[in-house]
Amino acid sequence: MLNQSRILIKGGKIVNEDCSIISDVYIEDGRIKEVGLNLQIPAGVTVIDATDKLVIPGGIDTHTHMELAFMGTKAVDDFHIGTKAALAGGTTMILDFVIPQRGTSLLEAYDRWRVTADAKVCCDYSLHVAVTWWSDKGAKKMLSLGITGPEGHELCRPEEVEAEATQRAITIAHAVNCPLYVVHVMSKSAAKVVSNARRNGRVVFGEPIAAGLGTDGTHCWHKDWAHAAKFVMGPPLRPDPSTPGYLMDLLANDDLSVTGTDNCTFSVCQKALGKDDFTKIPNGVNGVEDRMSVIWEKGVHSGKMDENRFVAVTSSNAAKIFNFYPQKGKIAKGCDADVVIWDPKATRTISAATHHQAVDYNIFEGMECHGVPVVTISRGKVVYERGQLKTQPGQGRFVPRQPYAEFIYKRVNQREQVGQPSPVIRKPYDGEIIAI
């Protein structure tokens, strides 16, 4: 009888962010036990043939909002459906956002998220905690001009404002020697700000998302209201069609660092809450299932990045920044057995008719992607194999994180040491003192 907790992956090319090598991987009890050729393993293990395929660390989606209550409704992808879909796309961990109601306890909100998520998640997860609220002053001008459709959402959130806010945050963070992580970089202007700051030595990391890398905001001007509303999110997708390629260039060159999705899905009927007023359209799009394939298609298949950079921006950098590397984000002895067997030659066409998410549309509808996950292993178990999911709610785990990741704070701490002001050593003043 085959032991499902012992898996041997044979003949694949292991791809980490720093190198690629042909090797076998032996997994036992949720961990990678050995990596190498001609491994001595016990009998009865499950053998997976990965010949001509890549063996990569499971993807880490840095930015999700599962079953978020927002704008009078709730996102349709809950922690069960959303994480199940993530696994089908090669993502084995998500970082969701705790969004407290204004004025409520951050700790109470965190506890609520844990209670909701722990019983449902199919893959590992961790949490960010946000302190945020929204203002409606930009929006009133558009409505007064008779602009009530989805295009108004982008028009009242111009690219220049996103760039200015990003610059301000970078300036303040640098002034107090604090690292900065900029979520959801959506425009060329904001991306340039992050890129320039990094080149000037600022400790800042930018996160573009799958939607911004795989499509653009021209859809918000579509004549079909329902089609346009599907693409409403905040910050908005930009209508400049050259934006996705530009963001991918910066991601490939390390000017931007990681990728998330801002996965926060509302059905067409939920979006219709704003049919007469764009400020009432629930903000959010899909992406958790398709992120890996979209980035491979637009990044690797296009020739903008190699397989190692792909691993960095979809997994390893996130693990380093959020301080669970090398537990996650690496294929090596002792690491968690979150592993994806990736077929770079296979193709698939993205469609709402075949995806595993609960939402009834897909913003990447019809996109052909080269690069497909054929097997996903989470916590040492095969949870997705050639189109079939094998998941149970609650089989994922919360991953606690320690603060002050060395990957970020080595530079910050060194600057703290050498950057302390010191007094000028001088002789005491011994001249006259006159009060006027």
Q: Can you give a write-up of this model?
A:
The chain has helices at residues 79-88, 106-118, 137-144, 151-155, 159-175, 188-199, 210-214, 225-229, 243-252, 268-271, 291-301, 307-321, 406-418, and strands at 3-10, 13-15, 20-22, 24-28, 31-36, 45-49, 54-57, 59-64, 69-70, 73-74, 91-98, 124-129, 180-182, 204-206, 339-349, 368-378, 381-385, 388-389. 47% of the residues are buried. The model has no long low-confidence stretch (mean pLDDT 95). By secondary structure, it is an alpha/beta fold. A hairpin with a 2-residue loop joins β4 and β5 (31-36). It has a seven-stranded mixed beta sheet with strand order 3-2-7-15-16-17-18. Strands 5-4-1-6 form a four-stranded mixed beta sheet, with no helix packed on it.
Number of strand segments = 18
The fraction of residues assigned to DSSP E strands is 15-25%
* N- to C-terminal distance: 98 Å
State the strand order across the main sheet: 3-2-7-15-16-17-18
What is the average of the pLDDT values? 95
Q: Helical residue percent?
A: 25-40%
Uncertain segments are none
The biggest beta sheet is recorded as:
7 strands, mixed
Structural class of the helix and strand makeup? alpha/beta
Shape: globular
| Number of helices, counting only DSSP H or I runs of 4 residues or more | 13
Radius of gyration: 24 Å
